[in-house]
Amino acid sequence: MRKLLVLVSLTACGTDLRPVDELPPDGGDSPGDSSGGDGYVSLVSGAWTLTPGTEKYLCVRKTVTQDLWIRSIHAVAPLGTHHTVLMTGPADAPDGTTECNSALLKPPVYGSGVGTPPLDMPAGVAIHLVPGDQLLLNLHLYNTSDSMMAGTSGIDIVTTDRAAVQHEAGVVLAGKAAGLYVATGTSTQTGTCTTPAGMTLFAVGPHMHTRGKHMKVTYGARVALDQDYSFDDQRFHMIEPPITTVAGGKYEVTCTYDNPGAPIGFGESTDDEMCYASTFVYPRPTATSCTN
Questions:
Q1: What pTM was computed for the model?
Q2: Which tens digit of pLDDT belongs to each residue from 27-42?
Q3: Cβ distance 79 to 149 under 8 Å?
Q4: Residue 104 sits in which domain range?
Q5: DSSP 124-166
């Protein structure tokens, strides 16, 4: 991912998923659990094939036809899916699936890496999708095997009634991009940025590549995340209690790497590296990156 992850549909646990177009207005009768099974519907997805040793991006566009308030979101990424980013905004091309690049052309609302499980919003919090806007799902696909690969990647959701929502959520990608340098051996890189006042940080998910070993995320004296990292298990972690930002507060992301080879820098490929903490916040922010 480039500046924003910040963040898709295999068959989910054998459930027969309805497309989101068949949902009643405002989510209506869409109760469900957070297992990627009952209650989830398919929001947007794209089918793909990859020849051995190849890497590419697909962009899937789909116009939103009804007001949607998302309380749970599931990124389903079959083998070969490096990461997914879901964006939304005014239409910029016809609906459908095309090959593309890593450029993030609309504000992101969700992103995932390998092994990301479903994310449940706190009570009263939801992601809002507006009728007439166009979804843009950016899929980074990479086949490191010696065989053909094929799959369908997408986003599944559980919706809620508008009346149940007090806060509209958004995502901010924090970390280090420009100047990222991963030396041979064990090393660390830190990205720091400042925040406006009045944001609530409630979930954070790490994203590095295969040399990443540990991530620590802090806001002032609070620790939002401090744990070992696995490329195959990139899950969101709830911040308990949530953090409320102050004007000029310092948000810091420290990434530790173990690199057995030559030094490498920032890049989109799994063979390069990144240092990002995808952070869910409310109210939905106007600035969706916080990098240095």
A1: 0.83
A2: 433 333 334 456 899 9
A3: yes
A4: 20-166
A5: TEEEEE-TT-EEEEEEEEE--SSS-EEEEEEEEEEE--GGG-S
